[in-house]
Every structure is written in structure tokens, then in C-alpha cells.
Design a protein that fits this description.
This protein is of the alpha/beta class. The protein is built from 16 helices and 13 strands. It has 2 domains: 188 residues, no CATH class; 159 residues, Rossmann fold (3-Layer(aba) Sandwich). Helix 14 links the parallel strand 12 and strand 13. The chain is globular, with a radius of gyration of 21 Å.
């Protein structure tokens, strides 16, 4: 969704470019689609992986096959980032663009194309080779662990080479500080936009007795497995909304009090589920935290992690944040959170006053 909105933002001041949408291309390492449809415009997606290899990774990410799914997991592409980025850069140069807009969650910033105007929107540096390195070391096993320990220091050195951009934007003050610390680059903060419906929605004065987790179903960084284990122990009702590569595993360990609803495209259905929740659960060290802000706008308090950009979004009347994620700490704070009485109207009032000037409620830009 963020990518779609960045594209809309770029073309809104260049209507001729929008009319000639065949001139637009999306370049990425790996994709489950051949094109992106935006307002009846079809934009071709070009991958670094050759078509058939891309399809193999896609197939084995959706269909779990012993050994092959472990081997052809798209997350293993980290070991080939420098090579893949060279391939992608070569494909971009062949297109001969006059401007490149880079939406980078990790490695996209490392495109090597000279003499082109480059605008970088960085959602997060490659944190798994830096601040989150120890977490990856603790969770990886056998050959993947050895390969990661081998490649991580080389990726850190390689990642520092790419610093030439004409414009740089970050999705939070937290990310901005990381970009300054790691790359010594100056940037501006541009928060991701939120659907206007989250500002305009009728709010539920009373909550129902269930909790919500919304985010990609992955155990690295997002700590979805810890959320599942927490609710396995408390036996409280949890709705898990979204999908991801660890979905089958998470479903296999979840007890009957946990319901998976996959991803819901209808924003009004998303709001209906979220606004009636007792809390949002988010243990991620977020680079921004769209789900957290959406919950607060709907008067829903947040049980989250005291790190990343989350402290930028919440206030003392809207959250309980934990500074550790071991199960004893989570259960202890969860019980305190359970008995805490939140003023839901105050949550929405303070959040809306804080963010109303940053977002246009007339349209969704990103």
C-alpha cells in the first residue's frame, strides 16, 4: 500500500506521466505479481530474479515442500543481495530513466545507477545485520546460521557504499536517527499516510472482549510467535489479521482461542474488527507502526514494545509498553494491562490532535 501511494504522490504533479503510464516501471528483487494495478493503470513489475526462478520461489513460499521450501525461501535471498542488486541496477539502466524513486525497506537503496535523479524513501535500514543481528543469530540454525554470520559483516560494509541521493525521506524520527547514525545522511521525516476512514470512522464507546494482532506473520522481528504463545497461556480471545511466510507454523501452535482471518482488503471491515477490540497487540520494534496509529485513532489502546518508533505514536494514556519480550515479563505486564482502565475518548482525542496536521483527511495519499 505504501508503494502505491508513493507512486500516486509522484505522478499527481505530473499528469502527463500518469497518462503515459506505460513509461512507469517497478523494479524489485522478487514479486508475486507481474504488474501493479493503480486506478485502472497497469504498471509492469520487473524482478531481479529471472521469471522462472521467481516463480519457483513464489511456489515454494505458498506450498510447503520438505527441504525445497526451506531452500527456496525468499528470505534466503539475503545471501545474494550484492549480486541481485547488480542485476537489478543493470535492468534499470537499460530502461534509461530520468528519475528513480526508491522505496527501501532494506536493500533497495543500494541501486547503482549514476547520472539519474534519485529520491529515496527509506522505511528501515538493514536492521537484521545491525541492531537486530543478535535476534537473528539466536533464531537461525545450522547452515543458515553459519552463512548469516559469514555474510552479515560483508553486507554491512557493502551497504555503506551507497550514499548518493538527491532527496531522502524517512518514515519516522526513529528511522531518521538511524539513517544519520549509520550512513551520516541528512533526511526529512514523512510519515506514511493513513486511510481517511480511520480519522472519520464512527467510534465504538464500548469494546468487545477480544484482542487483535495485525501484521505480517513472521517470527523474526515481528515476534508473532511470542504473541501466539502469550495468548496460548492466557486463553484470551485473539484475532490475527494478515498473512506471511510463517503462517502455517503459527496456525499449528495456536490454540482454539486464536482465530486467523488472513488479510482483509476492505478498509471498513478492517476498522470494524479493530475498533471493537479491547487492545491491539504489537511486540515489533517498529520503524513506524501503521497498525499502532490506526488503533489509536479508533480509541483502541496498545500493548507494545518500548523501542523503535512506537514511543513517537503513543502517549501515556494510550499504552503499556514493555522493554523486554521474555514470556514472564509479557505475562506480568499483560495482567497489569488487563486491569488498567483506559479513557478511550482521551486516546482518540490526543492522537487526532497530534496527527491531524500531518495527514489530509480528504484523501489517502499513501
Amino acid at each position: 500500500m505504501v508503494l502505491e501511494d508513493l507512486i500516486k504522490e509522484e505522478v499527481k504533479n505530473n499528469y502527463e506521466l500518469w497518462i503515459m503510464s506505460y513509461e512507469l516501471k517497478i523494479f524489485t528483487l522478487f514479486s508475486d505479481r507481474k504488474q501493479l494495478d493503480i486506478e485502472n493503470r497497469k504498471i509492469k513489475i520487473v524482478t531481479a530474479l529471472p521469471g522462472r526462478l521467481n516463480q519457483l520461489f513464489l511456489y515454494f513460499s505458498k506450498n510447503k515442500v520438505l527441504l525445497l521450501s526451506w531452500l527456496l525461501d525468499y528470505r534466503n535471498l539475503i545471501f545474494f543481495y550484492p549480486c541481485l542488486m547488480k542485476i537489478l541496477s543493470r535492468k534499470i539502466r537499460k530502461f534509461k530513466p530520468n528519475k528513480i524513486v526508491i522505496s527501501s525497506f532494506a536493500v533497495a537503496k543500494n541501486i547503482s545507477v549514476d547520472n539519474v535523479y534519485k529520491k529515496l524513501y527509506i522505511h528501515s535500514p538493514m536492521q537484521y545485520i545491525r541492531d537486530n543481528y543478535d535476534e537473528y543469530i539466536s533464531k537461525l540454525k545450522w547452515i543458515k546460521l553459519n552463512l548469516f554470520q559469514f555474510i552479515a559483516p560483508r553486507l554491512r560494509k557493502w551497504d555503506l557504499k551507497f550514499k548518493k541521493f538527491d532527496e531522502i525521506y524517512c518514515n519516522s524520527k526513529y528511522t531518521q536517527k538511524l539513517v544519520k547514525k549509520i550512513y551520516w545522511l541528512e533526511s526529512k521525516v514523512q510519515y506514511p499516510k493513513i486511510w481517511k476512514e480511520f480519522f472519520d470512522s464512527w467510534i465504538a464507546n464500548e469494546h468487545l472482549d477480544y484482542y487483535v494482532y495485525t501484521g505480517r506473520l513472521v517470527n523474526f522481528i515481528r515476534e508473532t510467535d511470542k504473541v501466539i504463545h502469550l495468548f496460548n497461556k492466557t486463553w484470551l480471545p485473539l484475532i490475527v489479521m494478515w498473512s506471511g511466510p510463517d503462517e502455517n507454523y503459527l496456525k499449528s501452535i495456536a490454540k482454539a482461542n486464536i482465530v486467523f482471518v488472513w488479510w482483509i482488503d476492505d478498509v471498513n471491515e478492517q476498522i470494524k474488527i479493530l475498533k471493537n477490540a479491547k487492545w491491539l497487540i504489537n511486540l515489533t520494534k517498529e520503524s513506524f507502526g501503521i497498525a499502532t496509529l490506526q488503533a489509536l485513532l479508533l480509541w483502541v489502546p496498545v500493548f507494545g514494545y518500548d523501542g523503535g518508533a512506537t514511543p513517537e505514536l503513543v502517549h501515556e494514556d494510550s499504552w503499556i509498553l514493555v522493554d523486554r519480550k521474555d514470556m514472564n515479563t509479557l505475562i506480568s505486564w499483560f495482567k497489569k494491562f488487563e486491569s488498567h482502565k483506559f479513557d478511550r475518548k482521551k486516546i482518540a482525542k490526543i492522537t487526532r490532535e497530534k496527527f491531524i496536521n500531518l495527514y489530509s483527511t480528504a484523501q489517502k495519499i499513501s
